[in-house]
Input
Amino acid sequence: MDFPILLTILLAPLVASLVLMFIPKEENILIKSISAAGMFVSLALSLYAYFTYNQDIGGLQFVFGHDMPWISDLGVTFFLAVDGISLPMLLLTNLIGFSAIFASWNINNRPKEFFILLLMLIAGVMGTFIAHDLFIFLLFYEVVVIPIYILVIIWGSSKRVTKEYAGMKLTMYLLIGSGFLLVGVIALFVKTTAIAGHPDMSFTGMAMAAQQLGEFDQIWLFALMLFGFGSLISMWPFHSWSPDGYAGAPTAVSMIHAGVLKKIGGYGLIKIAVYMLPLGASFFAPYMAVLGVIGVAYAAMGAMAQKDLKYVVGYSSVSHMGYVILAVACLNVIGINGAVANMFAHGVMAALFFSMIGFIYEKTHTRWIPDMGGLARQTPRLAVGFMLAAMASLGLPGLVSFVPEFTIFIASFDVYGGVAVIGIAGIIITALYVLRAGANTLFGPPRPEYDHLEDIKGPEMVPLVVLGTVLVVGGCLPSLLFDMINSGVVPLHAAISDALQLGGKL
Amino acid sequence: MPADMFVLTLPFDPSALTLEMLMAVLATLVLIMGIIVPKGSRHGLGWVSLLGILGILAVAVSLWGEKRELLNGMYLLDNYALFWKITFMTAAALVILGCMRFIDNMGNQAEYYSLTLFATLGMMVMASAGDFITFYLGLELMTLSFVILVCFRKTDAKSVEAGIKYLLLAGMSSAVLLYGLTLIYGLTGSITILEIGRIIAMQPLSPALVLAVVLVIAGLGFKISAVPFHMWSPDVYEGAPTPVTAYLAVGSKAASFAIIMRLFISGLPGIWENWAMVMAILAAVTIIVGNLVAIPQTNIKRMLAYSSIAQAGYILVGLVTATEAGIKGVMFYAFLYVFATMAAFVVVAYYYNVAGSDELKDYAGLAQRSPLLAAVMLVALLSMAGIPPLAGFAGKFYLFKTIVDGYLWLVFVGLIMSMVSVYYYLRVALVMYRDDPVDATPISVSSPVAVTLVFATIATLVIGICPGPLSEIVNGAAHTFFLH
Amino acid sequence: MYVEFAMQHAWLVPLLPALAFVAIVFLTRPWQKLSAILAVGSMALSCVIATLAAYGIFTNHEYAEKPLVYATRWFSLGLAGMPDLQIDVGVQLDPVSAMMLVMVSFISTFIFLYSMGYMNGEDGYSVFFSYLSLFGASMLLLTLSSNLLQMFVGWELVGLCSYLLIGFYTHKISAREAAKKAFVTCRIADFGLLLGLLSLQIVFGTLNLTELGEKISHFEDYTNFGILTMIAVLVFMGPIAKSGQFPLHVWLPDAMEGPTPVSALIHAATMVVAGVYLVGRTMFLFHEVESAMLLVAVTGAFTALFAATIALTQREIKKILAYSTVSQLGYMMLALGVGSLTAGMFHMWTHAFFKALMFLGAGSVLVALHHKADVWDMGGLVKKMPITAWTFVIGGLAIAGIPPFAGFWSKDEILVATLAEGHYVLFAMAAFTAFLTAFYMWRLIFLAFFGKENPANHPKESPWTMTVPLIVLAVGAIGAGWLGTPWHNVWAEWIYFGHPHHAAANYGAMLLSVVLAVAGIGLAYTMYLKDTEKVKAKAMAEQYSTAYRVLVNKYYIDELYLWFNHALVDGAAKIFYLFDIYIVDSIVNGIGAFAKVSGEGLRVFQTGRLQNYVLIFFIGVLVVAVLMAFVGPSNAVPVLGGVK
Amino acid sequence: METSIYSVIAFYALAITILGNAALVVFARNIVHSVLFLAITFISMAGLFLLLDADFIAAIQVLVYAGAVCIMVVFGIMLIQRPDMKDTNLFNTQLIAGTGVVALVFALCAILAGRTAWTDLVATQAVPENTIQVIGALLMSKYVIPFEVVAILLLVALIGAIVIARDESSAIAVDEGVKANAHD
Amino acid sequence: MLTISLTHYVVLSALLFSIGLFGVITKRNAVAVLICIEIMLNAVNINLVAFSKYITPMDFTGQIFSLFVITVAAAEVGIGLAIIIAIYRNKLSVNLDDFDWLKW
Output
């Protein structure tokens, strides 16, 4: 067998967190270094995987454990594999995870626990993206919720809402969502087992059986999954945890949550819900599109009314996820490509945003926009990072989010016409609030009380450098990203369009 | 018919009773040793009991695969019964190992340990019982042992109050149960469960049978604390000494489930349609009420009591379809439930020794005083909530997958409420992790407790992440259920 | 050989400034002079390459018919063989782009040079040059694009640079707001443009200019012809903002908050004409749609007139120039709208020189006067700053349309083209605008450079880095128009749409425009130079006070937008937000609260009294019994299930 | 099916005694009286058992219930109750609700159990004369496991009663007691 | 009327059971509740013995069952009294209404 690269990627942060448990809690720097080292291993390996993945062959690669029976009576195998859809997500997780470690470099309150939980969280997220078995996926899917809760209640901050409320809301929302999802998964499992004659929970195996389900079954199963994944991706109207949650969470958690965790929702929607239940998907597609568009416009308007930086970005991420849902609802190659790419793009951008906001908050002790101004003078590097993120957020060409948005627009405009136009109009509102937030924070007369602020430096620069590089490189060379995603989307789309034709749709 | 006819014709093989006999001997031995050993060194009795249980556990494991039927089905030894016995003994071993210090503080170790062992014996009898009398006596042996254990701290008003409540309510519920059983006996002329199953399948449904089933459901529902027969359990759980609560929550409930399945699935399959719906509704109500009332609790034991009510609701789900998969789900869940509950209660018991309180607010900052205790508590609670990758998740998966066809609404109720339950579990996490302790001195966890906790936690994790092996074992056990 | 190299490597033209940008940001930022030299040097090199490439184009006439295109895949989606979506990036060299390339790189080079002096001593000197380089790169990218999406990339990037440079004085709130306004205004328009591009991609399956041109001219789906109109209108939305057309012109005057070289480069010579360039590039689309053409023409003519009227009353030197820019851009649009790519591009070409010149001159003045911008506070500067003043005068003559200065020829071309198409009303508007232009521009010149000196000022002529560009551009402002004289119209041979058309010299129009220009200058002279106390001007302002107020306040359009923004957009945002936290969130919290309350409620049954429990136990027994006995399986509620 | 008129009379007489005394147990205001009525109930029950050809059970009923249990209860009462036994056995506040529920429960039991066609199930054989011998043999053969379990249960009850009731102040004395009992 | 069938016993048992239950629900004194439970168990015994006679006259199942029930009941009373004594020591009361420390 080849070197189990995915397993190593998954285990590196876990091993690091295990090591941390035996480190005395006073060893501040050592703790952080070990965390960084663990994440570095993962990051390096996932970069290696990304660039050695054979796009011409496509399909599942770096397969691990597909022949390793895990729970034989449920047909579960410890199946780890990546394809063109999951690999970008894995890479994203590592990029953000690695940056998040450094964004938390200044945490000195109970750092040991913080980094243990953070690493567990990152590993959990990675697990969802590399699992190719629904059970294993679920295992990782919910495991992330609890570390987040603890991270929020200890290291979070209370503003409009208390961190306890924020953490609980976030957690409960996701859990209730996943409760519905779980119903769907269990029902799906039972029904596919009946069809296939034997249990098989690997994505491919399950999908083959599930696609033969009748339309009615597919529809209600899809509805459950849509609710579950939809609340994770903060689909309107199940979004309200998102701004409060991000506002309450510590920087690293906001980064990971907005950056990747949310994407599990979109990822699941594509790779599980749509893939397995194409008839259900085609039934719900128009509704999804409408919800997506509402999400875009509504959250963008919500963001306009915000004065707290984190709330701005929180609402903005809801708005951006609206695009993802809209794109998935197109159910065509361009749309799904755009959805995945947009998730990647938004992940990088949101993580950068949150890390910069985190630094601002750390230094100025406020996130209240009217209390700020002129920071570009005092902390120019911070301003660069902030502006990069802001520009990516409004979809500036040359940054990673432009092309994904463009593809989403093409797909949705083609399929949904007028409805999509409302969504596309979101770019105007986005520009408004992003610029307002950015400009009012960074520009204008510098405030004397912030004259003593130190610009970010040393380890604090890592998020900016890592994520900023990805923003620009991904923006200039979109094919780096799109060729990969496309190699995953094309077969997936072929599978669902076959199923749709059989089911008399399309 | 001359009486000696029975004696000659009945097959009786005492070796099938090895486990029970060993347990009885062990319990008596501990009792006697308690008299011989001077008061100061009775601490060792815990170890004697523990080693004894482990020995019996080993014997039980070695018996795996045996299949006997004593006295025309009055006593059944199969993998099903063995699995339950292993479950009870595991729980007993954990509670003994984890709570020795608590017991030492309470005094009367000999009586305590021997009663624990007698209770275990009662459960083992229940697991193997094939007829009403054996079942009833096993049940009463267990119940009475627990009654005594509940008011073991007789100087503590709460403990005694719990004791009287438990005694009276248990007595009342056994009367109800018995009433139901007698009616079944009257209708079938038999008290052997398997035979009853055969007879009832041939009879039309008579009104008395309905009444009997209702009363049996009520009587056994009391034992598993299914709503609305659950009222005793929060009070008793709160008042009883914590190790007793732990064992009560696990053992008593598991044994009752063992017999419920025998009774309903082997004995009353003919009227499955009648009771399945009731079971489904009971399960739903139990899940809902248990979880909702747990939310406002401030005493951690009481909260755990309500949560264990909810857990009973989940386990009931497996009963609804009366299939092998359902039985398997129940057994699987009960087994993992042992570890989660034991871990949680051992933490509570241990912390009680340190802080002298079971109030939730006094758990503030536990994570900083003892990361182990806090982490174990959290893992245990989350396992009960069914958060992956902990065992509870796999357990719920097995349970709920049986009822997808036909009782989808119950799947919804169960899974959504299990997510609601996270709300109050996380409040514990909140207090333990967020707050700073009033007294920051670290708590040193003694090694037996640490072993218990780590073992239970690892078991919870392993079953959750890799439920395969356990699942196979349980499959085997559930399979033998229908072979009689 | 060099020419061949330059043509094949035209992509170097945008790349070099881009590299300079990267180098300045990451390497040379601490060394200011080095950064500046890097920026200027790279742009100069680009200019050389651009010139060589243009030489290659303009010496081979087949490029006028068939552009030189080389492109590569940027990204594609779908199967490798027949992608669902493929976007190429590449270079399209034809006379139009070559001309634009030369113009942009040439003017950029000199404005960069000018900036070295102008920005001396400012904070963020290096950063400024990095922005300039980025701008140069983006603008050149836009110019060279072979694909509309690529063009859009450049389009947005120049917008970004514009944003950054307008807001360069970050400490000024007005700069910050102006920058934001510029970006957002353009963004609104880009929304339309983007929709247009999407429609093009969806309908025609490509965004490559050449392919599109091919497909659109053969587009025969007449049942669906409305779609072309829609696309054309949508695409035109982009230029409306970018090129400051009514009603989205509002950002352009405010953009003068940026440093003056920026105003000259971006908001006069290059970026703002990108809109014109885009329309020119997509003429194949507009050409197919009569109504869209008319829309372009009317918009252009109206904007020209409208902006000119506002310019009449403005007092700040750069604001006047800005409105003049808007007005001139209107001319260009008008030209395109009447179908004369030649005239539009020609005016763009000449305008670049004289407007850049005037802005740089204004910058020179501002430096000398320490950024005192009101022309009424100036006066007599010609004595202290002769180079600045006289080059400015050249610019003034050019814009007013006095032969043989550059503006005359291009403006004449537009007027002729309008007349030739039979748009008499538009012609009249354009002609009247010419008069107004001459008036307000010379009003500026007379007030600022001639007349009484203001004793409060102590002006001093600018350093050579600033004056050299002035002189060079002045030369351009004089000579740039000679390419397209009616008698020997080299311009029209190369830059045209469809077929080259040699409009014969229309002496009547020529005469009219000269007369109007002279009249305008004369009126300005009488009002602002001869009348030293400016009595007439003041009297007029009082006599027509309403009109004056409207003009001074720019027809209150900014106020309207501001109101719209605050009252409607912010108000709506507030409503959405309140809805979110009070309705959506309340539902969520309500569900949570319901759970809690029901927990509390159910708890009440747990009275602690043993016998209550017994009571409840038996009530339970009764309920179960009823369920079993009377609800039974045969008539059980089907919802509750129970089928094995 | 009992057709003899004597048995019918006996049944009704016993039934009335049993129910009447049971009711008196409940309604008596003095706990000692209640216990007395209880004893009568138990003894009448034994009569009923005789009627049902269960002489051994009847004997046990008298011995265990009427003898041991009632005495034990009286002892218990004497240990804890104040000398004045008036009003020691009152109703609580649930009287009305209790009455309602009990009435319903009775209705339920009576309707469901009473409406069953028991006669179809009745066997034709008679009960053997010699019950004690058969029961003894059965206890040692067929019911040997329950028999052993019940023995243990009694041991448990013994331990329990001692552990709980023992006064900690006189712990030594009780320790002796445990010793004595444990050797049984 | 003049024949005594199994139904009579069943109804008698139900009546006795209900009387016992009534006592359990309504009496204050713990001892009274305890003895009422005994009455309920006796009701069960009536059933058992009656069924034994009528349904399985040859097997003695019911009789043996009731034997065990009696034994267990006695043991229960013993423990019950012990607990009542213990609680009396603690609270100086045997009134069940006083025992509501543990609630909600």
User: Anything to note?
Assistant: The two ends of chain D are 45 Å apart (CA to CA). Residues 143-184 of chain D form one domain. Chain D touches chain B through 41 residues (CB under 8 Å). DSSP finds seven helices and no strands in chain D.
